[in-house]
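Input/output pair, single chain:
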Amino acid sequence: MSTDQTPGGSYAPALETPRSPYKRNKPTRTNWELYGWLFMRMSGLVLIVLVFGHLFVNLMTGNGIHQIDWGFVAGKWASPFWQTWDLLMLWLAQLHGTNGVRTVINDYAERDATRFWLKMALYVATVIVIVVGTLVIFTFDPCADPNSTLEICRAGSAGVPSITN
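Output:
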């Protein structure tokens, strides 16, 4: 690239000729924004399937909304399939939302310090929700209610200890 003197006497970089070969600048780091953009599209599609499947099973099958109680959740989470389904839905929804809020913070927080602290609060909240949600899904005890009428709690079967001695 050459430089030409402008009428004011200063030097400015000259434009390349239209037929000059294209010189691609090699990126020096990973393009996180591209990965974030791709994650939002892919996780959004998967979330549509997960959420509508969740709503269909919970609201359209059986007795609809009237079936949802402690026993219904205990019955679903006794199956590794539903634990995985709900865990995937929790993680994807939380990470999808966090990425969206991160983008809003980047767009609207003007000062670097404000942007930093808002994102730190967002990340801390995200970690707390993911950890607590994951613990709830995998440590859910269907027999925690001493007045439970669930068959699994009265019989103490399926490896779940009964707390009603």
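The CA atoms of residues 79 and 85 lie 10 Å apart. The chain has five helices and two strands.
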